[in-house]
Please model this.
Amino acid sequence: MSRGGETKVVGHSERKVDALALASGQPLFTDDVDVPGLLHAKVLWSPHAHARIVRIDASKARALPGVACVLTHEDVPRILKTTAGQGWPEPSPYDTPMLPDKVRYVGDRVAAVAAETREIAEQAVRLIEVEYEVLPALFDLRAADAPGAPVIHDEPDAKAIIPVPYWPERNVAAHVDMRIGDIDAAFDASDVVVDREVETQYGQHCPIEPHVTICRIDEYGRLHIRTSTQVPFHVRRIVAQACEVPVRRIRVVKPRIGGGFGAKQEVLEDLVAMLCLRTGRPVKLEYTRSEEFVSSRTRHPAVSRVKVGFGRDGTMKALYLRARTNTGAYGSHALTVVCNCGAKTLPLYHCENVGFDGDSVYTNLPVAGAYRGYGGTQAAFALEVAMDEAARALGKDPVDLRRALHIREGEGSPVFRALGEGQEGVEQKIGSCGLARCLDLGAEAIGWKDRESRRGSGRFRRGFGMCALMQGSSIPEIDMGSASMKMNDDGSFNLLVGATDLGTGSDTILAQIAAEAVGTTLDRMIVYSSDTDLTPFDVGAYASSTTYLSGEAVRKTALLVRGQVVEVAARMMRVEPADVDLPGDGTARAGGKSVTFEDVARHALYARDQFQIGAIGSAISHASPPPFSAHFAEVEVDTATGKVRVVKYVAAVDCGTAINPKLAEGQIEGAVANGIGYAMTEEMVFNDRGLCLNASFRHYRIPGTLDMPEMVTILVPTYEPTGPYGAKSVSEICINGPLPVLSNAIFDAVGVRLARAPFTAERVWRALSGKGFGT
Amino acid sequence: MKVTVNGREVETAPDPCRRLLDFLREDQGLAGTKEGCGKGECGACAVLLDGRLVNSCLVLLGQCEGASVETIEGVAGTALHPVQEAMLQLGAVQCGFCTPGLVMASVALLRENPSPTPAEVRRGIEGNLCRCTGYVKVEAAVLDAARRMREA
Model:
């Protein structure tokens, strides 16, 4: 499949560049450093879902020995911003102050303390006296815009900063709609119409490292922020905005990150930065696990409805999606997630009449934000369940139905243009699509053909489900990545990237791309991410952009450097640059002559006409080529208890060229595991006052080793012409599979439709009652 | 009181309320042991206490008098431990935050059972949560390490 010719580093499962240090426990993470004189921060969180702070008195807390600073809304400037950690100008509304005078969910910020020890800080938090005027609260996303509903953002200064629909007086944080063709007429003309609504729940990313930030004032009086973030450059900009400090006085350093999955795109560093600025001392704020659940960010819960019409022959006549997402107390990613509900699903199938309505509404529940899958997760559940039901209604094999309808190489979709992320989209033609092969290989791996014979008839019933998926690679015409590279004495290179490795292995694959492009081996590439003083700008790790976009920036940069290496080598060998060949082993050759990169570096640095071999390069994207995937699962349902065991799970994925196949597989396996957790067990549960009842790993169950099925991962190589060495994204797509696949498999096993996730034993058992299983 | 940390005897004030985790990270400068939940639910802080796998966030320093503690920093000798080597080679490390705990759990498992079945590996590391890998490559690495150790 490779159209780029033979590659020596790209496409090989090189060892992750940071793996040795990580596996031997080196102090690499935010909290692994010893900072003398460190203050510990603690936050007073709201006990009410919706209340006005009538009076707040921190005098007893301030008087406690060992307390260095207490901040309430009375002590900090009121600057509304968004914490979404997006590029400027953000599509999320400016509705979030550093500290509010009206709390909007249980877990909202009320006040912050910095003290000599954690214990003193905790004690001081308890000494803060707050008088609340408790307001009626809103928990039901369906009722958010009903007449008489409590208005959550009634403050006059909340606003959208780009021209997008924003109706806080109705609790609508975002709205999007789109019509292509005539869907009403097309539904009328359809022979089979399926109308399916599904609901997804509050879920949390659960990075094993919670949010942690250490701020200090450095030797030159600048604010130094060491933080567990996916977006160091956005942290710098947004902390500058919130704390009224110029960008130039802030440095943000991202060390190794213990997972993010979108939670660490959220910029929550403003509060600890302000404590540091006020005290002039180093301050650390580290979330506990329960704070991570409730007061960092969550996935937007959603009610998604797909209505799809078919002709008798199986052509899709009309496709309509209605998505309502719950953004919680603040509008972080409200618009873009709901846009992506449509944008990452509707182009998948050929259809001339497509409609989409999306809203994101405020409620008095925890704040939703970016989470791997990002709207695709919620809407693919609805679409791929509807496709399954349509296949049954049409008497077709679900694999065949998708095989006949899916978008192909060279084709476009009107949806691409109509729907972007917070603005109009960008027209694009599919440059690579391996979905047909994913369907074939996935079906073979699960044993799709002989599934009928494996159902069973007693208490335990087996079932088989599948789905097709697409995602994107970067946000076209918005995202930007860049890299800089310089050559050292020994022919090695420093590669500096703003792209943020949060555990994904992006440092490794970017180094592979650089080594390939410049013509050397991976061990001569010293990669560093990310430090706003040292590395060039990158929007950060989100929107499945790092391999595709930051990778292209690295490739362009490395090619500039390669040109300089060739020129110096040509001079040294007294040949024309055009005659110099770089075979990829850190040498340059021409005719029978040869010089090493070390010779080249020494010549350039010490001999004559010296200069630093090096370059800086940037890339923007004009398309967002979708990776494609087909998922298959086998489940066993215990009809007596409702317990579902996922027996086997197959994910076949077209991510273009896998720059590092082993790391790509790791992304797929991790995403599937996370998706299985969301489908089967994970749900934040709230009481009638909006308090989360299960903010711990014991009670919010993410998968452990014993929960995992047999997993099969299949990479289906294609070549994406717009991506570096043919690469597309791989990180997000596979989290979207388990919800529809497992719902379809359960239906296949026992004939009941699980439309509300997670598919717990209790929900399955309730659905089964009265269906004639057992007694 | 005295406690042995990675083979080295350490004298420390007997603070009965101090968690073993904080003693290791803050007093001993051994930051390889991680805190993921502080409640014994994730295994990121796993260490060996007299050879037994424990969550160091649930152990008080006062319980460790005269005991021997082994952490991730003490696992490798002149060469990496086979579990570490296998994890590197088979791509079992993603963000790496849970890796020290997983290594400790795997080392404990393989000392007790040098020839585990895949199911026994899953049981042996069930107390360690990982959100990145889906455990596929982690399990493969532990099985591979067992093979290397048997053949060594």
